[in-house]
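SAMPLE LOG
Freezer: B-3
Tube label: C17
Construct: single chain, 670 aa
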Amino acid sequence: MMGGTDEIGDARAVRAKYYEMHPLVALLTFPQDASRCAKRSGRCRKQHFREGGDHVERALPGADKDEVASLRHYTLAKQEVAASVRAAKQLFQAQGEREAAEHCQALLVQLAEDRFNLAVVGQFKRGKSTLMNAVLGRDLLPTGLLPLTSAITTLCYGPRERVVLHRKGWAWEQEVPLAQLAAYITELGNPGNEKGLVEARVELPLPFLRRGLHFIDTPGIGSARHENTATTYAFLPQMAAVIFVTSVEAPLSEAEEGFLVDIRGQVRQLFVVVNKMDVLGDTDRDDVFDYIHTHVEQLLGTGDAHLYPLSARDGLIAKLNHDDAGIHRSGLAPLEQALTTFLAEEQGRTFLVSILDRALRLVVSADLTLATAPADGDIEPLGSALELQRTMESLRASLLAGAPLSAVRNAAEPTAADPRIIDQAIAAGRSPAREAGGRQAKAHTRTCPICAAQGQALFAFFAQWQYRLATDTTAQRAFAAERGLCPVHTWQYQEMASPQGISDGYAPLIETLAVELSRLLERVVERVAAPLAALLADAATCAACRLVRETAAEQVEQLLAHLVTEEGRADYASSAGFCLPHLQATLAHLEHSVDGTIEHRAVAEFLLREQVQRLEDLADDLRSYSLKRDALRRGLLNQEEADAWRRALVQVVGERAARGGAMIADQGTV
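STRUCTURE (predicted):
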């Protein structure tokens, strides 16, 4: 029995360690199960979290699966929001709207960091810092009679406790001990912000901060220092959610009323705290609270505002003394529970909506109608600002409607791709080779003229396609519908594309493949190898292979038209000639021609005779190369002998860069 007890203890220790290492799992899993506990305080949650208690134990089976699904849905929704912001940034860049593009870049940074700004705002001396200390359960932020500086103080996650200062004019951030925080963020330690503090970032190893939450203390509005109010208002666009703190001492001043009106249309989530309830008697307390409640609802234009009456000071004292009854009396517990539920269930949704709101304001205020001129044909890579606005509004509506995050971006039903995009990319690749025409045979190149044209076409194709694939969502959809490129051309594309470009371009393809494979799971009892093979790109479906084939066919036509003339044969005789695969393709074309039979036979005889002579000369060059190397007489090598080894490979199989996966296609068409 003792062994069994030890095993149970070990299991709980393992669970506790797991949740300590994965606080996001604990944060999302535990609050949904916490309703079973009569104790709703942060201390109770922390105790069960650390000890692997009943809450965690009951939620553990299936928690991993649910958590993976939840994070996956959030990631998909976030990527869709990021795509819209990125499109807006490109639109602004194309229109020369530099400031708007920089704002979009800042939004992308916030998305990448998953930074959720929960700001505590209010008038000077309402108890904002005390409330934050009470929520943290630590006397961390300085409080006092004098106002704080005009700088922002941010609490965020870090592996160790430290303070990082961002100071005006400093290229590098400054790290100071936590004990010196007051010397920078209080008027006493930093009068008039003479130290030029912009932001003090306090990093703490607290689990509830680990999910990208930035708990922010703002300068008090309405104080004698106007820069404090200005700083708070300037930070307003970056606030995803707000805890607005007023108090019963002088309820709702003019500055507070104005601030509530200003933020009601900009902040998605608002918690209104009525602090210092402990200074009033029971009768006065109810009257004052009712007055504040009614007035707040009028200012916000709502009839269901939820206010939290409490005493932050009493809550902090109770937290420091581990007094559960005192926490309950202080009124802190309902606010903490609301914050916990919000952070676990609505933080991601609110965060994404706040990003969309800011991006939409940029798009609407810019009053743009069209993006840059289309890159190819009549398809606009970025689309119009109006289309982008509609996309953003649709995303926003889905999020606000409370739809599951998985429904925000329905990867199972990808948007229909426009096949013209691939056609235009191929046409753009063929243009340089088409313009060269029969001049390929005139050029004194040391390779097959058709291979040279194919290489030129592939370079032009990849040069424009890798950029478009990285920046154009319509091109990405078309690429996903085509299942990408064949293996050989995939790696040729990789040599020209950047890691970020590949990431942007291939994400829709990988998601599409994941959806298709998930459908095969339903048919796993049947034969699935053939359907799986259909998901893989090959020479028949690869756009680059198609370009290679079409370029070769076009070049064969042009070169044959040139070879029927004496000038054309003279040009060919002075060139490197065809490689054997392209000689075969040219002769096959001649055999299938119905006109000029005698003339075409003469061309075929000429080509074969030239090829025999070239191969004999090439064999001589190969043997001469080996002999002179064996004799240690490299200085005797001429150019023909020095590159004979490479010309031999080209003769047999063609240029590697020019042929790719098309080499295994119908030899009569390459």
